[in-house]
Specification:
alpha/beta, ten-stranded mixed sheet, 20 strands, 29% strand
Length: 415
């Protein structure tokens, strides 16, 4: 059967008889999956990708890095713990759609405040359940991420019409999605980690000396900001297009570059500012921030076949050989050879063991380093959370007048 031929994958709805709402997911290659709708009653286009995390669907849904994407969960049952305000990673969901095998919209969890169906409906995000997500994931894995259209509008269910929309909708390449998710004005952030429960293991105390930090918002997750606060930073979050002069006017001790969505090469008005800041202040980047730092240092980025999305990615520290299981969410990667060609004294510090992509880079002469994965998790393992402490150490040593380098910090080398 040719790729242009419409193929149907019928699915069972998650609701009972009498409340079935039709939904269809059409891929640009001609495949159409039919199931039951939940969330908002709309038609949305996006790049269809899959996430392999087994927990934390609310953190995934509210991660701004998914702007422009339709997210498929490989774990079969979604919705069992509901949704609550404390677990939101941003002000609202930015993803284009949500795909699950089985929706459980009667949550059973003491922290639950509502079901995921109503949560997505209020946010204007469509969802489809009851399809064969294994077949969909295999298709993406083998053929690569592709544009799709998800319709939960009962009046827009014609296969050919949806396929036509999917084939004409834009992908992620060349789109500045950061402009859609960044904040409109600077603000301060002071909230630390969730207080937890009685009887938990005592947490480390925050450093007594406060350090001022400017955090560039490319689509920042709240748990990143929480963990920066835990390291004693007074955090001011600024829009993505903030100039270097405006950032320096805040008299920061360090600069942070956040995660975010889409094509790093398409983000406008950022590279020059980061290039200038990198000559004056200690700097740490995560995910898109890592990629933008790579670009600012003269490197290039490339699109991955289907990206890394999930909480079980192996990241190896090249200095020690140790492997951390990491949370990742990116469809682009810094090209290692391009960094070498750029002529900056930058070294690759971490790689992904699945495909060898660059997972960390550091400057050997200046206090600059970054990681591709998410040390803050939310969701995911906490293996790499120590990088926030290392960033704080780098800032302290720089403020003290030491000639500290990102390379020594990324490798865990002390003074």
């Amino acid at each position: 059967m040719s790729p242009s031929t419409s193929k149907f994958a019928a699915g069972l709805g998650s609701g009972g008889a009498g409340n079935f709402r039709p939904a269809a997911l059409a891929l640009a290659d001609g495949t159409v999956y039919r199931g039951q709708a939940f969330g908002a009653e709309v038609v949305r286009a996006g790049e269809v990708i899959f996430n392999t995390s087994m927990t934390g669907y609310q953190e995934i849904v509210t991660d701004p890095s998914y702007a422009g994407q339709i997210v498929t969960m490989t774990y079969t049952q979604i919705g069992n713990v509901g949704a609550n305000a404390e677990d939101e990673e941003s002000a609202r969901p930015f993803l284009s759609g949500f795909v699950v095998r089985e929706l459980l919209d009667e949550p059973s969890n003491w922290r639950s405040e509502r079901g995921i169906d109503g949560f997505l409906a209020e946010a204007g995000v469509p969802g489809i359940s009851g399809i064969d997500t294994r077949a969909l994931v295999r298709r993406i894995r083998d053929s690569g991420a592709q544009v799709g259209v998800l319709s939960t509008d009962p009046e827009v269910q014609d296969s050919e019409a949806l396929l036509a929309r999917a084939r004409s909708a834009p992908g992620l390449d060349g789109r500045d999605l950061v402009a859609e998710v960044t904040c409109n004005a600077p603000y301060t952030w002071s909230e630390g980690r969730w207080k937890g429960i009685k009887g938990q293991v005592p947490r480390e105390k925050r450093p007594e000396t406060a350090r001022r930090l400017v955090a560039y918002d490319f689509g920042v997750k709240r748990n990143i900001l929480r963990l920066l606060v835990e390291q004693g930073f007074e955090v001011t979050v600024v829009p993505a297009t903030t100039s270097a002069a405006d950032a320096l006017a805040l008299d920061p001790d360090g600069i942070f570059l956040s995660n975010g969505p889409g094509d790093p090469g398409a983000v406008e008005g950022v590279r020059d500012a980061v290039r200038e800041l990198a000559t004056q202040k200690p700097l740490f980047g995560i995910c898109l921030g890592h990629q933008i730092l790579g670009l600012a240092l003269g490197g290039e980025t490339r699109k991955l076949k289907f990206g890394h999305h999930g909480g079980n990615q192996p990241g190896q520290d090249l200095s020690t050989g140790k492997v951390a299981i990491c949370a990742e969410n990116h469809g682009y990667a810094v090209d290692a050879d391009s960094l070498a060609r750029a002529g900056e004294p930058v070294e690759v510090t971490h790689v992904n063991l699945n495909d060898g992509t660059v997972e960390g880079l550091a400057h050997t002469e200046r206090p600059l380093f970054s990681v591709q994965y998410h040390p803050e998790a939310s969701p995911g393992p906490h293996d790499a959370a120590y990088f926030f402490q290392r960033f704080r150490e780098m800032v302290d040593r720089h403020v003290a007048g030491e000639n500290v380098t990102g390379s020594s910090i990324a490798k865990g080398q002390t003074a």
